[in-house]
Amino acid sequence: MSSLDIEKLKEDVLFVGRLLFERGLLSGSTGNLSVRLGGGKYLVTPTRKNKIFLKKEDLLIVNQEGKVIEGEGKPTSEIPMHISVYERRPNINAIVHAHPPYVVALSMVNFPINYPYLPESIPLKIGIAPYSTPGTREVPESLLKLLSNCRVIVLERHGAVALGKSLFEAFDLMDNLEHIAKTYWTARCLGSFMPLSLVQINKFMAVWNEQD
Fold it and tell me: Exposed site from 9, 60, 134, 193, fewest CB < 10 Å?
């Protein structure tokens, strides 16, 4: 990958980081982003820095072991999770980890956000990972059984991870997940509701697959 390509990706990381902040999908210094560069290298955000204030020089390039090879500072503590995903999903080129409040709130009350209550939730292939200590090896281990099928994974009491072919796809998945969670929260305040039927799901997926 050329230096110009990497510079463009850095701009994209800064832009998406600001979007996540503005959309309320993370706050303070929470959350992290990464992009696969090829050759066992990854562009990542640093630890404990607010995404709204990030600059190009804050971004880091790490190797397959998570060690910084370009830039100054410490990478996100969740770098083992990012690398674990990239190793197991060669079609994934970008990861967004955020702390969307409605998603986190629903995980705290064990609401089955992965049930097909809305048609737009089905293509997200939502997985739910049990609680694991943030910033430790427990996090990637909690995802292992979900990585083969899921596009977004809810981390119980912690946040969510979106896996995209591009950084913008990963952002879009995260944004959609939080919108769905907010809709479920609102509907649940109004009353109870049921998942879509198998017939309804199959009809929707037939239309979706035609447009894919």
Answer: 193
| Residue 212 pLDDT | 67
**Domains in the chain, ordered, with CATH?**
3-211 (3.40.225.10)
What's the pTM?
A: 0.95
pLDDT score, position 9: 96
Give the residue numbers annotated as catalytic, written as ranges: 78
What whole-number distance in Å separates Cα of residue 139 and Cα of residue 32?
14
The 10s digit of each residue's pLDDT in 38-56 is 999 999 999 999 999 999 9
Q: Are 134 and 158 in contact, with CB atoms under 8 Å apart?
A: yes
Paired strand residues for 9: none
